[in-house]
Specification:
230 residues, mainly alpha, Four Helix Bundle (Hemerythrin (Met), subunit A), 7 helices, 77% helix, 0% strand, PA28_C_sf, Proteasome_activ_sf, Proteasome_activ_PA28, proteasome
Length: 230
Amino acid sequence: MYSLTKKFCQYQSLSLVSHSTNIIDNNLFNFNIEQLEQSIKIDVESHILLSLLLYAKELNEFIYNDERFSKNYFLKIENNLSNIQSNKLINELIQLIKSYFDKYLLSSIIIRCYIQIHVPSSQTGNNQGVNIQNQIIKELEDMKIMIETNENIFIDYYKKHYEILKYLNKYPSIEDYHLYLIEYEKKNFYDLRSIILELRTIFLKTYDIIIKNLTKIQMPRNQQNTSMIN
């Protein structure tokens, strides 16, 4: 799935070069672009959109039915604290969340390719549907930025955690550093729960915006007097 998308994007880039310089040999393209586009359309309409809903449901289950995200679970995290290594239980939660980041980013790339496939050639006349396509792409980009911002939170967590452990080992008799570590881990744990909820919303919002505007994406020239997405 990813390889198809990558190949399609490479095709677009090479086509631009060929058009402007005439130095690309058409024989390099040994695949059918129409078949590739059709494959992406089928992938989005029969798989990707449904997956967005399934991922949102899984994230919802984590918050309400998974012990690892229950408030009482922090007691286990606290008991797992160490002065010399990272917290295994926190790391497991971070890796779980990162796997959903990856799932969303891959889905987003394919959906944006799907929309681009349906963008008609530039011409005068009714461009309302094209404007809607561009608005949806902008929404997807905004949600992608939100994902990447949360990824940076994990980097900051590990950096700060290292600094706390460094002081703990340097001044083991100072109780405040031990309390600081507990409070820091607690804050991070609740931040992870918030990220799960935010990520669930992102999956649902992406599904909702595509489903409600699917006809406008597929047939942008047929849209009359419409300038906003639903």
